[in-house]
């Protein structure tokens, strides 16, 4: 098989698994359900991923890498804006699958110490991208300098988690743009008029 074919197969597995994990949760995403969701056999799925946890981690890491790319270019607030725009950009089912998977990651972080340890290695990428973006913004004179970058990073990550929970609960998102404007304004440097 060519590398392109292997990459396409891996993407097919990740996309199907995302929907399966979002609908059924980690425990409910049985091998049979993963086969149905991906359209592939157990052997094909586990040729690419060692086990179900490795598949789930790869899926969560894939989402984190996509978010880290957006953060590096446009900041973490843009990731949040993209979440609000998601239903218009892609079908609502995919957005719901992403949210479901994100919530499943949060649940497993809270309840599974082994998963938490494995995930810690992967989640640092998003935090590092956010921190680097904030440092660049501070060096450019656009970021407030009275609060440590680590604190600002934690603040933005907490807002992201809150937004994910808000959306996952099905609460209205129509009024969230002004909230994100406020978040962005909170981390900006304010120039005094002389």
UniProtKB/TrEMBL annotation:
DNA-binding positions: 30-49
Highest rank taxon of the organism: Bacteria
Domain HTH tetR-type: 7-67
Keywords: DNA-binding
DNA-binding among keywords: yes
Descriptive protein name: TetR family transcriptional regulator
The species this protein was found in: Lentzea flava
């Amino acid at each position: 098989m060519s590398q392109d074919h292997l990459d396409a197969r891996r993407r097919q597995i990740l996309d199907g698994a995302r929907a399966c994990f979002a609908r059924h949760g980690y425990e409910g995403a049985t091998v049979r359900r993963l086969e149905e969701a991906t359209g592939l056999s157990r052997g094909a799925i586990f040729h690419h991923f060692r086990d179900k946890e490795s598949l789930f981690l790869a899926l969560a890491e894939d989402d984190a890498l996509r978010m880290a790319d957006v953060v590096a270019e446009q900041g973490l607030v843009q990731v949040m804006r993209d979440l609000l725009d998601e239903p218009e950009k892609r079908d609502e089912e995919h957005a719901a699958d992403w949210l479901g998977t994100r919530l499943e990651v949060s649940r497993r972080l809270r309840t599974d110490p082994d998963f938490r340890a494995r995930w810690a290695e992967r989640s640092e990428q998003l935090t590092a991208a956010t921190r680097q973006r904030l440092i660049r913004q501070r060096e450019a004179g656009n970021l407030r300098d009275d609060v440590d970058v680590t604190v600002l990073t934690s603040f933005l990550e907490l807002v992201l988690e809150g937004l994910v929970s808000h959306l996952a609960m099905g609460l209205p998102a129509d009024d969230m743009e002004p909230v994100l404007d406020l978040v962005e304004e909170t981390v900006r440097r304010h120039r005094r008029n002389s």
